[in-house]
From TrEMBL:
Belongs to the TRAFAC class myosin-kinesin ATPase superfamily. Kinesin family. GO terms for biological process: microtubule-based movement; mitotic spindle organization; spindle elongation. The keyword ATP-binding applies. It comes from Iris pallida. One of its GO terms (cellular component) is cytoplasm. SUPFAM superfamilies: P-loop containing nucleoside triphosphate hydrolases (SSF52540). ATP binds at G91, Q92, T93, G94, S95, G96, K97, T98. InterPro entries: Kinesin-like_fam, Kinesin_motor_CS, Kinesin_motor_dom, Kinesin_motor_dom_sf, P-loop_NTPase. Keywords: ATP-binding, Coiled coil, Cytoplasm, Microtubule, Motor protein, Nucleotide-binding. This is Kinesin-like protein. It comes from the Eukaryota. Residues 12-327 form the Kinesin motor domain.
Amino acid sequence: MPMAEHHGEDCCVKVAVHIRPLIGDERLQGCKDCVAVVPGKPQVQIGTHSFTFDHVYGSTGSPSSSMFQACVSPLVDGLFQGYNATVLAYGQTGSGKTYTMGTGCKDGSQTGLIPQVMDALFNKIDSLKHQAEFQLRVSFIEILKEEVHDLLDPASVGKVEVGSGHTGKITVPGKPPVQIREGSNGVITLAGSTEVDVSTQKEMAACLEQGSFSRATGSTNMNNQSSRSHAIFTITLEQMRKLDTVFTADGVPIEDMTEDYLCAKLHLVDLAGSERAKRTGSDGLRFKEGVHINKGLLALGNVISALGDEKKTERRCPCSLSRQQTY
Ligand SMILES: Nc1ncnc2c1ncn2[C@@H]1O[C@H](COP(=O)(O)OP(=O)(O)OP(=O)(O)O)[C@@H](O)[C@H]1O
């Protein structure tokens, strides 16, 4: 499963591959691993084709347990310096994105990347609590068929079966949908999405669990619990750093200069899987979802190519890049 990352210092976008083992049904059907890791290199071989990435985890590559430390932990540290960051899990349906991110309500949720982010974040806050005051907020949205839904909407009261094995949430009619807006300063906001103030790891984990439970899933031939939407879990960290008091030449303390405010966001994205209708056996509603999913992924691919293209990123306003680091 590939994951895109972007490192402000050396390269715009970095890509790590996570190879999952064969699972139950695949073993029963006698499937064989078709991806081989080239020993000692972040390179995989599929048939006669070789592909090189920044990291390869799983199979005979680096152990999956080291992925967080190498790829995501530096982003958590960056948050404390005011850098925004994004982790995207991208891949074919059933390749293990939800498992890797820990966005599902089961399996990977204990070891997925998001729970590890929470651990690291709260440990760091604890170690810095005497130097700064912190405030954390989370939002959790999904993009389903080009519509943005709020997964932390207090009006959502759980999951119901909505025909053909599809699950969805009940929302109170009349609640305006979440709108994506761009402010005059270029900051994108999601008008109408719930932002929950959290002060403990338990509260943040409860938001992840609640939102994951509300997410739309459905069964296809390739994954019996396939995510049908792109899900974005956003952590906003605000901090008021207490600086050493600055004095004028006469020894008078300058009040205004004793605090430094920083705000940064970490977006953790579990994309819906790219799919081929023929292989997933999709028809009707599920087929339409697949078309929207593939359309969104194509647009995202163009954005990532542009981010990785130095000529295009140079044209952007330097101020919008100054505190931006995206993985
Ligand atoms: N590294 C792994 N080790 C063991 N099992 C895994 C691993 N990754 C994924 N799986 C299993 O593979 C199955 C598919 O994984 P998952 O639902 O995460 O895929 P996905 O890429 O999110 O699919 P979709 O795009 O359809 O939502 C699940 O049963 C999951 O438990």
